[in-house]
Structures are given as structure tokens and as C-alpha cells.
Design goal:
The structure is a single chain. By secondary structure, the chain is mostly helical. It has one domain. Helix content is 68%, strand content 0%. The radius of gyration is 18 Å and the shape is globular.
Length: 166
């Protein structure tokens, strides 16, 4: 049992074991997702200008653009949540990992092979990362150390590509 956790609810023991098993993956996911956002933003800003979100994405992927606009409206109602004095936030900070994947796919002619060798390389590795991320984020009690090992391996593979290209 994972005893160092302050329990707010009484969940079955399997859920607390999932917290212990999954906790090491969270910082790795944080670094990967934000590194991918920064790399995509950098490349698309160089190609389309700093306002690429407005001049290009808004027209190519209206659904994602509208989603982020909705997130901005929610944030504006709670200004104390999400503000950062440490870093500049840009629209890609508000997209989900699945939406970020869609952006890479839509902009594949700009990002492949600039960032990843092929779109299948990117999507194949990301699929495992997304599955484990969702298992952890939604606290499926079935997550185990092997899941974490596989996700970390896939993250390292994609991070090597990002690091070598940026």
C-alpha cells in the first residue's frame, strides 16, 4: 500500500498502487509534451512567422483553434489559474496531446523530416505514449511497471529525434 499519500477519498487498494507505479512517468510526460510543443512552435514560427497560429492554423484546423479559444475564455474567468511569470505561454500549451498529434499530421510537410523521419515513426511511438498517459491520467488501476517502462522508452526515442533536430 502507498502510505505516503494523503487520501482524500477511500478508494480500493489497486488505485493507490497505480499512483505509486505511475508517479515516475508524470515528470517524463511533462518534459516530453512541453518539449514537443516548443519544437513544433519553433519550426512553424520560423516557417510562417510568430503569428502562425492566427495566419495558418486557424484556417487549417479550425476545430483545434476553436478549442484553444474556448480554453482562453475559461482561463480569463480564472486568471489566477495557469498564469506564468516563468515562461511565455503560446496556444500550443492549451492543446491536448491528441490535438498536438493532429497538428503534426496536418503540418507533416513542414515537420517531417524536419522533426521526425516519417509520420508513421512519430505516430507509432506516440500511440504507446498516449495509451500509458491515459492509463495514468485516468488512474486505471491496471497500470504496471512494464507500461511505464515502455512509455519511457518511446518518449526517449521521440525526444532523441526532437533534441537532434532543434
Amino acid at each position: 500500500m502507498f502510505n505516503s499519500l494523503t487520501r482524500f477519498l477511500n478508494l480500493p487498494p489497486a488505485y493507490y498502487k497505480a499512483i505509486k507505479v505511475g508517479s515516475p512517468i508524470f515528470p517524463v510526460l511533462f518534459e516530453f509534451e512541453n518539449g514537443l510543443r516548443i519544437a513544433v512552435n519553433k519550426i512553424l514560427s520560423e516557417l510562417y512567422g510568430e503569428d502562425w497560429w492566427e495566419t495558418s492554423l486557424k484556417h487549417k484546423i479550425k476545430g483545434i483553434y476553436d478549442y484553444v479559444e474556448g480554453q482562453k475564455l475559461k482561463k480569463d474567468k480564472m486568471k489566477w489559474i495557469g498564469d506564468s511569470k516563468r515562461t511565455v505561454l503560446f496556444p500550443l500549451h492549451s492543446v491536448t496531446l491528441g490535438q498536438l498529434e493532429d497538428i503534426v499530421k496536418i503540418y507533416k510537410s513542414e515537420l517531417i523530416p524536419e522533426l521526425f523521419p516519417t509520420i508513421d515513426f512519430f505516430s507509432g511511438h506516440l500511440e504507446i505514449i498516449k495509451r500509458v498517459r491515459n492509463m495514468y491520467s485516468h488512474m486505471y488501476p491496471c497500470i504496471d511497471k512494464e507500461d511505464i517502462k515502455y512509455a519511457k522508452s518511446e518518449i526517449k526515442t521521440l525526444c532523441r529525434q526532437i533534441k537532434s533536430k532543434t
